[in-house]
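Issue 218. Parser rejects a valid record. Input:
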Amino acid sequence: MWAFPELPMPLLVNLIGSLLGLVATLTLIPAFRGHFIAARLCGQDLNKSSRQQIPESQGVISGAVFLIILFCFIPFPFLNCFVEEQCKAFPHHEFVALIGALLAICCMIFLGFADDVLNLRWRHKLLLPTAASLPLLMVYFTNFGNTTIVVPKPLRPLLGLHLDLGILYYVYMGLLAVFCTNAINILAGINGLEAGQSLVISASIIVFNLVELEGDCRDDHVFSLYFMIPFFFTTLGLLYHNWYPSRVFVGDTFCYFAGMTFAVVGILGHFSKTMLLFFMPQVFNFVYSLPQLLHIIPCPRHRMPRSWAVLSPSPFGTSSSDSSTMSESPDPPSFASQPPDILTQADLFQTKIASWPRPLPPFILLQILSSAFPFPCDDRHPGPFLPSNDY
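Output the parser choked on:
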């Protein structure tokens, strides 16, 4: 039966600092609200009738609190080395790994905030994580340098038990950093979604690390907990303000900060393949979003569809029982004959909603798949066409 492992003293200190970070995040976000609005780092919540200015880029606050916690925490894993009798040699490799991880995360927070301010293009967003991951890859090269992986069981008859990837392993780690940062950024657009998914992933990693503390790789999982515990609590404070209806927006700063934090613990904690299992919803969303990312179908800003902020019946028709409870869909309002002083708040909202071309229907993808992978079908007796529910 599994028992909760005994936590070392540095982890207890880290937990206390993380709880203080939760309080700090909850307090600082509303305190800096006016500063962000004054600096025009604000926006309006799409698809809502309220036109209230909401501060953006609040991930920089949770990221700053996260960095302060870990900067103050740096001496605690090495306290034994301050007493000569208890330290045979200073663990320079652990110290370099800790500093290198903080450097990569700090660079990503800075680049993410620059993206929020400058509104960079997508091709630039692919380069930013690559640049920020270079310190991380150098730390891995100098401290570990191991590029051998354990081959999955189905492939072992062909490749053997172990496989040395060489330089390709560093390419994989760089791509992992790029994927983690942009995967959080792509699965966004709903209040609390970015912070919520990051909170779930971090909680899953914490549970995984705690379970593995009794294994052979204890030090690697303790290192991961040094980062995941503060990240969980600072993200929890951010999610409190970002939950629907959102009072703040996390911005690209938080997406990059969260993704790089996950990449750091996955690479330096030596469980990058397990990390991808925690990212399965993001992997599915990435594959599903490829037609938009490759501009095969239109990709509006924030991938938000056209909306007039009103409920309307389906364009495919309704049953008699449903039609009595629904009104006809109103046309887009025209305000040419109305003076500006009598426009309502909802009217102003409707005039600002952009319209994008209708995306390709989903059945086109099915047609492409059926053409690529044909299967026998007897269409000589098609039978009657029966309507059905979407089950």
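Fixed in the parser; the record now loads. The two ends are 41 Å apart (CA to CA).
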